[in-house]
Design brief:
727 residues; mainly alpha; 5 domains; 26 helices
Amino acid sequence: MESREYQDLLEKYKSRVAQEFGSTAPANSKFSTKEYTEFKEELYPGHYSLYEKACNFADNLFKLSVDQQKAEAIQKNLDVCHLNVRPSGVIALSFLLPLATIVIGSLITFGIFGMFFFLVFFLITGLLMIPALQKVPDFMANTWRMKASNQMVQSVFYLVTYMRHTSNLERAIEFAADHLEPPLSLDFRKILWDVETEHYSTIRESADAYLQVWKEWDKEFVESFHLIESSLFESSEERRLALLDKSLDVILTGTYETMLHYAHSLKSPITMLHMLGIILPILGLVILPLVVSFMGGDGSDPFVSAIYISVLYNISLPIGVFYLGKVILSKRPAGYGAVDIGEKPGFQKYKNVALQVSKNFTLWVNPIYFCILVFALGMLIGFSPLLMHSLGVADFSFDQNGNLRMLDYVCPPEIAPNCTDAEKIGPYGVGSSILSLVVVLGLGVSAGLYFALRSKNVIKIREKTRELEDEFSSALFQLGNRLGDGIPAEIAFARVAATMQGTVSGDFFNLTEKNITKLGMGLEQALFDPKVGAIVRFPSPVIESSMKVLIESIKKGPRIAAQALLSMSRYIKEIHRVEERLQDLMADIISSMKAQTRFLTPAIAGIVIGITSMISTILTKLSAQLGEFSSAQQAGGAAGFGNLLTIFGIGIPTFHFQIIVGIYVVQIGYILTVLSNGIENGADKLGERYALGKNLINSTVLYCAIAGIVMLLFNFFAGTVLQRTFT
């Protein structure tokens, strides 16, 4: 009876509130955060959504039961990534996709090449995919944690900055979510969403539930967050501010210590990656031509051997190296992530190439068109020896003595000297080998050109913004002092602009002051106007958050705003100091990886290709001479010498072999660049594209230049030696 009276009274007051405030929502309905759902749809990673759909499709197709302990571990990782998938869907996909790979891959490749090798290859690949796919949620969760932990310091900075002038945790979390990049911004919106959907009754309960995820991964972040929460219960303003300052000190100190341990632990895995992914494969290229030559003694086609090597060097090894690199990156602790401003509204056009059509009109063209043109031209020139042979073009030489032939298609020793053009294999000519470098050049330069053009304009804007961030702490300090004197914010901006004239910070304050005086804007509009606002010219989340804090705190008076800005000035300086120490920690490892990418790997591979070309030339000429001697002996009635031909075959053409190795050099350059950028800067897509643009072009050009020079020199020496031997 008492419970019923309580419910009646509750419904009465709910209807009264609904009448007064115009609410028409049912009493038991649940709300959803529009910002959260829209945010997830727009910024959720595309491959995550694709994986989510694939798992749900497999789950509907196969109804599998999963061990409870295993299901709990998978569900924990799925929750971290915000994936709406059941553990049974993950297991179902781990069997469905390998089965499809084995059946479809084997049928297609066996139908095209007719080799039993691919049946075995896809069978082994499919079996290895089963445990790998079952670990995909764990891998995604680690990647999500790495990206999120890269923003931990920034998140605490935003929370503390807002809480200093407004002691409201919900508003502070919303403020941080607005200024953070995915995925941590999505996590913060999820905290608010869980409260609005009544999953948790208070914001503290929702935040504490979220912090459970980070207890074993980033204890400093959890401790800092708890200190921020504790500041809500302090009656003394001085103790409240001290707790907020302490929370930022905890996350900064903890970040430096964890990054120090990470830097020390990197030496062993990086060395293993360097040896297994670079040194051993490239040194193994020296012996491969001999192995292929002796394998060719049974009459097998060298083109088939090239396919085997391509599967090893262009598929298996890159996947293995990429996996090792991702494992190393997944263990990276919290750091600092830069923002990809090219994805922000108004800056996407700068990812294209600007063509000045007229004085008042600029055409922005996607660089993919230029890259496709470079790639197609490289393929046409590089594969011209194959086209010439298919069109029946006669072979020609570079000199009058008949040396250094262009195509040099030869007959296999077992059917020499009587074979048709269709039965000849090659091209073995040095000219063809040199042209094959254009294939690699077209691939590497076109890929590097794409990344370079996509990041060239945007990186300039970010570098200018970073220059502003470096000196912004002193600018905030001056602005805070002016506000502390009781000067209105509009006048304070003008005075700071005059004091810092000639600097990037001076330009920022001067632009704001001009918007106020000449355009008649208010302070908020002068800063945040979407067309002429000062923030548009300097797209930095640190600067944007500082100015939003200024707008919020100035409502409480200039002295409150002055205290907030002075605190932010100190925070920015402390964060910059710790960031410099972290860069110093990573200097040795990063410099070593950059040297491998830019010089060592392409140089070693280029020299190896030159040696391989010499070995191939010697084996080809020697095989041809032995074929002639065998035919002469058989014509003269002699026997026994012809069996020597069965010891080794004619060898793989340098044309094919160089293309395989060159593609591997481009692949390794890409992987090492992504890895080094991830270790140094965390999840920085813009910096990654800029580094890829430089490294892919430089390393590919260096490899092709060294390989071409060494190839010509060694073939000249080999030709001289063979000429003396057989004359």
